[in-house]
Specification:
The protein has 17 helices and 13 strands. The protein is α+β, with helices and mostly antiparallel strands and 441 residues long.
Length: 441
């Protein structure tokens, strides 16, 4: 963890002492059903306005400290980001939030006690034990939603996004416009949500039946937990820190989020940040934008590479111990990772029951580059043709999927532009790959 300057550290320690004043409400009163408590509720309709700047004021009243260079901004009133409005050297403190205001999966477990036991057992029986921290965050969000404006988190809840573009939020019509790989990833996200929904409805909790019957509300709470949490201890602890959750993803992030032993959150710059630059963190591997799109619903247009979309070769990938992050095409140049050539030649030899298959397999798995290149030279025309067919097929597929997406009415299918943008990134990359292949013969 980076050490804060002495002056700032003194200010932050003073802030810690002030605590999170809204949580002075008795714990039991904060989880009563909406019908008996709240006088105002959060509008979760997709077109509802976000009150972000009131949330920022609330956060500071709760003890959050931000550097002078920290600023929230939006170009459309829908999507917001944190930016630096002055130069910030590497190692600068950006934000501090006291532990009392942070949503922590372990604290939620303590707060709700045995009320979640039945639901969590149901989730564990579905093989989702590692995701219990995320489940607790979702339930906490629902509980605070029920409390309406009596919740100490009301200003934060009222500032959160309503419209999501990820796999959980997509309709069946959306899935019909996605290429196979990102469709597969998005379906996995939808299945993960379905398990949470199933477990929530099977187990006893303090949530009202009205909430448990509200699919849209539960999906919204799930997406908030999914897209705004920070992993502190894998499979054990996840946290959401209001205001710090306004930092977006960056291909080359310039900030990091850390927590001290007392549970306080600190955001610190990791590189020099020029005035006007977004303040960003990493939400995942930047080498492959499709998982980020499926989980978070945004397209990382600065990504240097994309997966080669050889989803039909997963068995061969397992044979060669290759992952999606190994099988890449460069978005700007169309360069092809060597492992892609290995995979396609391996598939050709395997299908043909070629006697050279064992030797090529050994060369791939042992890292014998010289032997591999001899095989590639021998079979190059066949591998080239196979890869070219694959690339042409993906280009044609993406074209037809985008054509279908563009036939939808945007008023009823607001995720179309994001889907088409993703498809266009794939197509443009694959066209560059095609140019590379065509130049080879």
């Amino acid at each position: 963890m980076m050490k804060l300057p002495t002056v700032m550290a003194g200010i932050l320690l003073a802030t810690m002492a002030s605590g999170f004043q809204p949580t002075s409400l008795p714990a039991a009163s904060r989880v009563q059903p909406l019908s008996s408590m709240a006088t105002a509720t959060i509008n979760i309709q997709e077109n509802a306005q976000r009150d972000v700047f009131s949330m920022e004021e609330w956060a500071k009243n709760c003890g959050v400290q931000t550097a002078e260079g920290f600023q929230l901004t939006s170009q459309d009133g829908v999507d917001y980001s944190a930016v630096a409005n002055q130069n910030m050297p590497a190692g600068s403190p950006v934000l501090f939030a006291p532990a009392q205001m942070i949503l922590s999966s372990s604290a939620i477990q303590d707060e709700m006690g045995g009320n979640l036991e039945a639901s969590e057992n149901a989730l564990a029986n579905l093989g989702e034990t590692n995701r219990l921290p995320l489940f607790r965050l979702m339930v906490k969000i629902l509980a605070e939603y029920e409390n309406g404006d009596q919740s100490p988190y009301f200003p934060w809840l009222n500032a959160l996004p309503r419209l999501f573009y990820n796999g959980v939020a997509m309709t069946d019509a959306c899935f019909e416009c996605l290429p196979p790989y990102v469709s597969w990833l998005s379906q996995k996200e939808r299945n993960n949500y379905a398990k949470f929904l199933n477990a929530l409805r099977k187990g006893y909790s303090t949530l009202s039946q009205q909430t448990l019957d509200n699919d849209n509300l539960i999906r919204w709470a799930y997406n908030i937990a999914l897209t705004r949490h920070h992993v502190v201890v894998p499979a054990k602890e996840k946290k959401i820190t209001p205001l710090a959750d306004m930092l977006n993803h960056g291909t080359n992030p310039n900030c990091e989020i850390t927590y001290d032993p007392q549970g306080n959150c600190m955001v610190t710059t990791t590189t020099d940040v020029a005035a006007g630059s977004p303040l960003t963190i990493s939400l995942g591997d930047p080498s492959n934008p499709s998982p980020l799109f499926a989980t978070y619903g945004f397209l990382d247009t600065d990504c240097p590479t994309v997966f080669c979309k050889a989803l039909h070769l997963q068995e061969e990938m397992q044979d060669l111990k290759l992952g999606f992050k190994d099988l890449l095409f460069a978005t700007q140049t169309g360069d092809i990772a060597p492992q892609v050539w290995d995979l396609f030649l391996y598939k050709l030899l395997k299908d043909a029951n070629d006697p050279n298959l064992p030797a090529f397999f050994e060369a791939c798995t042992s890292g014998n580059e010289g032997a591999k290149q001899e095989f590639h030279g021998q079979y190059f025309p066949y591998t080239l043709n196979s890869l070219r067919e694959h690339v042409d097929n993906i280009i044609q597929t993406v074209d037809s999927l985008s054509m279908k997406a563009n036939s939808y009415n945007l008023s009823t299918h607001p995720r179309v532009p994001a889907i088409v943008a993703h498809n266009n990134l794939v197509k443009e990359t694959f066209l560059r790959v095609k140019n590379q292949l065509d130049a080879m013969g």
